[in-house]
Amino acid sequence: MDKFFLVFLLGLLIAAHGVAGNVSCKQIGMLEELGSLDIEEEEENDVELSEIPSWNSERGAKVLVNVDSFGAVGNGESDDTEAFRKAWEVACSTPKSVFLVPQGRRYLVNATRFKGPCADKLMIQIDGKIIAPDEPKNWDPNFPHTWLDFSKLEKTVFQGHGVIDGSGSKWWAASCKKNKSNPCKGAPAALTIDSSSAVRVRGLTIQNGQQMNFVISRCDAVRINGVQVSAPGDSPNTDGIHISESTNVVLQNSKIGTGDDCVSIVNASSNIKMKRIFCGPGHGISIGSLGKDNSTGIVTKVILDTAVIKETTNGVRIKTWQGGSGYVRGVRFQNVRMENVSNPIIIDQFYCDSPTTCQTQESAVNISEIIYQNISGITNSAKAIKFDCSDTVPCSSLVLSNVNLERQDGSVETYCHSAQGFGCGVVHPSADCLSSDDKIAEPVEEDIRHTEL
Ligand SMILES: *[C@@H]1O[C@H](CO)[C@@H](O)[C@H](O)[C@H]1NC(C)=O
Ligand SMILES: *[C@@H]1O[C@H](CO)[C@@H](O)[C@H](O)[C@H]1NC(C)=O
Ligand SMILES: *[C@@H]1O[C@H](CO)[C@@H](O)[C@H](O)[C@H]1NC(C)=O
Ligand SMILES: *[C@@H]1O[C@H](CO)[C@@H](O)[C@H](O)[C@H]1NC(C)=O
Ligand SMILES: *[C@@H]1O[C@H](CO)[C@@H](O)[C@H](O)[C@H]1NC(C)=O
Ligand SMILES: *[C@@H]1O[C@H](CO)[C@@H](O)[C@H](O)[C@H]1NC(C)=O
Ligand SMILES: *[C@@H]1O[C@H](CO)[C@@H](O)[C@H](O)[C@H]1NC(C)=O
Ligand SMILES: *[C@@H]1O[C@H](CO)[C@@H](O)[C@H](O)[C@H]1NC(C)=O
């Protein structure tokens, strides 16, 4: 067992013997080392952002592969897909190459797979703007889930001041969330990095995703720094950064505003660290959803440290479907400032994002060891803290430490259903409704089941 969990378990062992309510903060002190996840942040400037490599064929130097040299026009109207494909083939097969999308132009590119493995030390320098064709009717049916899809890369850097724009407005209008008479079918993600390891992404802007903006799936060791993600607050399902089946991911210094979760972390992901994040508008920072259609969902070791969450429907959220299995364990949300957030702290084990109603079931994803520390600010709903857990699988070891949420015009309260844990230090609204780990809260009839469409 690693240090992380030893310290964690020790702390929780002590915590479990405390009572609900105001427990000595010394116990939380035991949990303090949780912060030292075994993944490190990136130094601010360990590689100059956008250091434009110069053309040089000498040994040791970078080899520039400019899409313009392969016939890209960059006027926003000509189809530059073929030029990008050809440039990729050359860049990917040439050691130390730089796939360059030069600045000052707009490249119209269809759905494309940029497949590895590639030769050593590939860099993808995006300084110009890449735009997607905007008509869903003409979308290549071979690419239902992706637009720019990078896969099987190793030790690759994406950087630049460029923009990846999914031109999503017609996709949003065609969504069943916008108009119930539309069929419910998915749309492509703007940028996907799949099945890759040791990848860095710096400085890029990703916007107007057809659906999700930036997906990281089946990856290990990803560093994302100084990225901006934006889509309108009312665009459906446009998650900012979606992390799936990935490990050792650090996301830092990034600003995300969308119509769905700013960050969503789903199945088979662990060691995820988010640091200095601005989120809003959107649905907040989410773990989940997990457990849909009776599936197994496992997410462990997630840290959000230092964030501003502004004008969002949720702040920090864990959402699971009834009927799922698996667990969410070892999560710390800390040093978060909430500004005008509807549900600043929420666990929702009755998540239902489906046009049909969802039944309560026996099985659920098990949520435990979740710490909320130094979280303050303004809620715009009365239930500032909601722990709505499954009757058969209660949430356990929920810890609130120095949490202070206020509402401008009214009182605030904590809602607990089948939730065990304790508070420490200032906890407002109070953590009194959490039951200690040996007794389960009385079931309460409530109209709190959410359907989020
Ligand atoms: C790109 O998509 C358009 C439709 O939007 C299609 O007409 C065109 O042939 C595609 N180009 C390539 C290179 O696939
Ligand atoms: C919803 O879609 C239907 C069918 O496409 C269309 O007739 C209707 O005008 C749309 N409603 C709105 C509000 O856009
Ligand atoms: C969750 O991840 C595990 C491990 O990668 C995988 O076997 C399983 O199919 C995933 N479940 C879902 C619902 O994707
Ligand atoms: C999930 O399991 C429940 C209980 O066994 C069953 O009623 C339901 O049909 C299942 N749902 C799906 C989508 O498989
Ligand atoms: C609490 O969080 C706020 C907001 O992120 C931060 O400014 C402050 O320094 C934190 N306090 C402590 C004691 O870490
Ligand atoms: C808070 O957000 C709501 C919408 O969620 C908005 O109507 C209201 O003006 C905001 N209040 C402040 C003080 O920003
Ligand atoms: C949920 O996980 C906790 C912590 O690991 C464990 O004590 C508890 O028994 C689990 N609950 C169920 C219903 O499996
Ligand atoms: C709760 O804990 C805080 C910090 O340790 C302390 O200042 C306060 O007096 C305690 N309140 C109660 C009711 O014990």
TrEMBL record:
Residues annotated as catalytic: H283
Compartments where found: Secreted, Cell wall
Primary location: secreted
Short name of any one Pfam family annotated for the protein: Glyco_hydro_28
Documented EC number(s): 3.2.1.15
Amino-acid biosynthesis in keyword set: no
GO molecular function, a single term: polygalacturonase activity
Keywords: Cell wall, Cell wall biogenesis/degradation, Glycosidase, Hydrolase, Repeat, Secreted, Signal
GO biological process: carbohydrate metabolic process; cell wall organization
Signal peptide, first to last residue: 1-21
Domain of life: Eukaryota
Enzymatic reactions: (1,4-alpha-D-galacturonosyl)n+m + H2O = (1,4-alpha-D-galacturonosyl)n + (1,4-alpha-D-galacturonosyl)m
InterPro entries: Glyco_hydro_28, Pectin_lyas_fold, Pectin_lyase_fold/virulence
Annotated family: Belongs to the glycosyl hydrolase 28 family.
PANTHER family, per the entry: PTHR31375
Protein name as annotated: endo-polygalacturonase
Organism (species): Acacia crassicarpa
